[in-house]
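Step 1: inspect the first sequence and its C-alpha cells.
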Amino acid sequence: MKPLILLFFVCLLHISYGNSEVKLQNVFSAESLKKLYEALESSELRSDSSSVSPSSTAVINDYADNVISQVQSLIVEKGLDTVETPDAQLSFKRKFALITYKGSLKLTEGSVASVSSIKRDGDVVASYSNKYLSIQVPLRYDVLDVNYKYRAQIMKIHQTGRVIGKASSTTLKVDVGLNLTNLVVDLKEFALEDIGNIKLSFKGNKIDDWLLKIITNGLVPSFKGTIKKVVNEKLYDAVVTVVESLNKELHG
C-alpha cells in the first residue's frame, strides 16, 4: 500500500495549476514528499487486522505543514492574498425605545485579506481501505480581514468612512480521495464549518453609540456572507482545478 500512496504524490510533481502558470512542482517538492514518505514509514501507520477489509491510517502532519507553508508562499507570490469583493447595499429597520429607525448602508471598494494565513487545524490523516486512499485536511484561518468603504444613511443622518472586520477562527474541512483501481481523484468534501466572531472597527467620522449599534447589527451577518462567498468560490475553485488537473495528468 505504501508505494501506491507515494506514487500518487509523485504524480503531483508534473501538474500545472490550470492556465495560471502556478506550478505544483513548487508545492509538492522533493522535501515535501520525503516528509510524507517518513510519515508512512513511521510507527504512526496502523493496520486494522480485525476488519473484513484491511485498512491503514497514517498521521501526516509534518508533510501537511510543509505543503501548507509552500501554499502560503505561493498565494503571496501570485498576488492572491487579498481578494476584491463586490459592492453591497443593505437596508435595515431598527426600533429603539418608541422610535423606529430606517436606513441603508452602501459598501464599496471591498476586499478580503490574509488569505495566505491558512493553516492546519488538527491532525491530517491519510487512510487506506479497499483500494481507496482518503486524505482528510482540517484547515483554519486565525484571522480574515474584511475591508469596505461605507456610506450610511439613517433617517436624515449621513455617515461615511471605512469599516474593517476581523473574523476569528474560520474553520474548513477538505477531504480528497484517490481510487487506486482506476486512478481517479475526487474531492469528497469541501466544507466551511464555522466563521468565528467578527470584531468591527470604524475609521472616519465619529459615530454615535446608538448609530454604531444599528450599523454593526447589519454588518456582521453581511461580512460573514462575504467571507463564505470568497471561501466557497475562490478557494473551492482552486481545489477543484487541482483535482481536475491531476485526473487529466493521470489519464493523459
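Step 2: inspect the second sequence and its C-alpha cells, then contrast the two.
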Amino acid sequence: MHAAAPCFRPPIRIPFRPKLQPRFPAMRDWFTFDNLPLTLIILLIIVSWLSFFSVILFGG
C-alpha cells in the first residue's frame, strides 16, 4: 500500500464585503464649529443623564 497523498485544501475564500460606512462621523469631527448643534445635543443628553442619576443616587 502506498501512503495517501496529503490533502491540501485551498484556502477558504471570504466573499468580498463592501466596507461598512461608519454610522456617525469620527469623534474628532463632532466637536467642531460646523457640528455645533450636534455637539450641543450630545452635551445636553449627557448632562441630563448625569443629573438624573445623581438625583437617584444622592437624592433624599
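Step 3: confirm your contrast with the notes below.
The helical segments are 27-30, 36-58. The longest helix spans residues 36-58.
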